[in-house]
Amino acid sequence: MKHMNSEVKEERTSNKKRIDLFLVPIVLIAAFLNLFKIWTDEYANAYYTAAVKSMLQSFHNFFYASFDPGGYVTIDKPPVVFWIQTISAKIFGFHGWSVILPQALAGIGSVLLLYVLIKRTFGVWAGRFAALAMALTPIVPAVSRTNNIDSMLVFTLLLATWMLFRAVRTVKFGWVLAAFAMIGVAFNMKMLQAYMVLPAFYVFYVVATKITWKKKIAFLTTATALMLAVSVSWAVVVDSTSADKRPYMGSSQTNSVLELAFGYNGINRLTGNTSVTGSSHKQPAQTEQQTASSETKQNSNSSADSSQSSNQRKSSFSQKMQAPGGGNQNGMFNTGNPGPFRLFQKGLSDQISWLLPFVIFSIVGLFAGVKFKGPYTAKQKESLFWLAWLLPVAVFFSIAGFFHQYYLIMLAPPIAAFAGAGAVALWSMYKQHNDWKSWLLPGGILTTAALQVYIMSPYVSSIGVAPIAGVGALGVILALVLAIRKQRKNSLTNYLGAAAMVVLLAMPAYWAMTPIIYGGNSMLPSAGPDSSSGMGGPPSTATNSKQSGFNGMQPPGSSSGNSSSNNQIQPPSGSSNSGQMQMPGGSSNNSQMPNSFSSKSSSSKRKSGGMNAEVNQKLLNYLTKNNTGEKYLFATTDSTSAAPYIIKTGKPVMAMGGFSGSDPILTVSKLKAMIKKGEVKYFYLSGMGKGGQSDVITWIKENSKEIPSSKWQSTSSSAQQGPSGNGTLYEITLK
Length: 735
Prior knowledge:
Elements: H1 8-15, H2 23-35, H3 46-55, H4 59-64, H5 80-92, H6 96-122, H7 124-136, H8 139-144, H9 150-170, H10 173-190, H11 198-208, H12 213-239, H13 257-271, H14 288-293, H15 308-322, H16 349-352, H17 356-366, H18 378-399, H19 412-432, H20 440-456, H21 460-463, H22 466-484, H23 491-517, E1 581-582, E2 588-589, H24 617-625, E3 635-636, H25 639-649, E4 654-655, H26 668-676, E5 682-685, H27 694-702, E6 705-706, E7 728-731
Parallel strand pairs: 3-4, 3-5
Antiparallel strand pairs: 1-2, 5-7, 6-7
């Protein structure tokens, strides 16, 4: 801290030709948090891992990002990240860790990029602290340790930011084009989410570039046109290809990439209308929770809780999901209830908000004395960029109807940037001013420590009282001592300032390590003592922590000997289960998600890729033995049942209704034609109604021969259970 008052120019000169030794441990910390034990995740997110397995088999599957080797349906996202994952798997072999590796490296790269971006203008100490804050933001390593898209998305947007900053410094139009083209590439990673940074790009270029208004408008218009062209390039190729020559576009209702981009993966995330049931009908009283529930397929089962409170929470969960106006204070997937303080609610605050009060004080300090008409310093211009990134994204997550906790990684760069730049700015004001600005540093420390105590308080049973009391007491003491010693300039004050920064980062650092300590969840990554559940929020009180796999589920065709089987929820065929939840690119879940992978067992391979991330070998043997040349090993309702078998065998398995089982892909006439051509004859049905597939499922049951369970069903009580309990295997042969 004592070096923070040195001039930015001197710092830049002294560090220009040598490695920053302070950066080395920061990068090593990021590498540890992002890479350590990723080799224990055998399946990662099975939905995406199955796609990589399929993409390895042909260029056709590779280009379209086909979920299955047969090219029946795609995954629900564009292909760029999965192209990278497939290349990684081609180089290193097909493993869980090889599909995770690109995201882990992207997480480390984001730390380095943020250091470079902040250091140049705000000084080396600001760059170091920003990089450290980025590395220790809990949701960053939690996401980077999976094969979900968001870590790569953030890295790409930071790379675009570096290009934009270079465009402003050099006043070269080529860099402007490159920056906006990179956003177009990011669009082909996660569609409209990439555009969340556009306000920052436009505002910064207009304010910071020293060219005429005529050129600014012309350059931005051209760059935007290029961005849009790059964004829709893959979509135009796919949508213009005949539907019978490519896979169905998964999770769309019209077999269109553009509909997927601007509907299911776009505007519907804001409105919460993410239903993929094939129906546009929405009940007037439908809440955020109900809407998200409409894309569901089946509820997961958990072992019986020993505590009465756990049973009460579990039994009332579906009622909370259905009640008009909600009733679940933590919201869908623990994303809280929409409102101005949503980011401070349980489930979100411990993922991203640890430093938010300090960031708010930093923003006040960095913009102190700024006049609307300028002129603006370089620091003020870049602060405006990070503010224009932070505010729109924060507003979106405060009001959005449907998202997952790990999407919050989009807030990590601006928060870390302000934490780094603000630490230096507030320290300088503390040391050099006698007015109100000198109180910003102790005020930021005090309020941030108070928020961290609030964030940790629901976890007292997991982490104990000591760390909560320690952060609170040290935060108050250091803030008060700094306030008292405000006019004293000596080494003790410097050490106190450094100690305060350490205190504010201590618990985020612990939270960032929880996916390693407690086990992570590749379906719904989150940080915290319950990180393996993927649901965030306070830990589950379920006592049966030894149940195997993801929510104790078994593969299709297995039979559980668990005495808690009476807890299974199996609606009759054709019914809808609106109290159930479906994770895009993930699996079904319920509110009680026991920690499947304790730290004691984290050294062994874990199949956390889905509810049924185990293969029923007896079923597989039966299907393989009785395959008489059919293209598909078997057909099933959705991707959750199919993914482990695709990963295990590399053979085509048809998810008739796509990811959630509700895509309107298949008709009875089309299925008849496929059976007559000898493409498929076995069907595994779990007994769950699948929206638009109801006619197909009814026809299968009426025109098939049921295979006796003794021929294919496992009786192992240690096996995991399939999507909705024990299903039925059917055989259809048409002449």
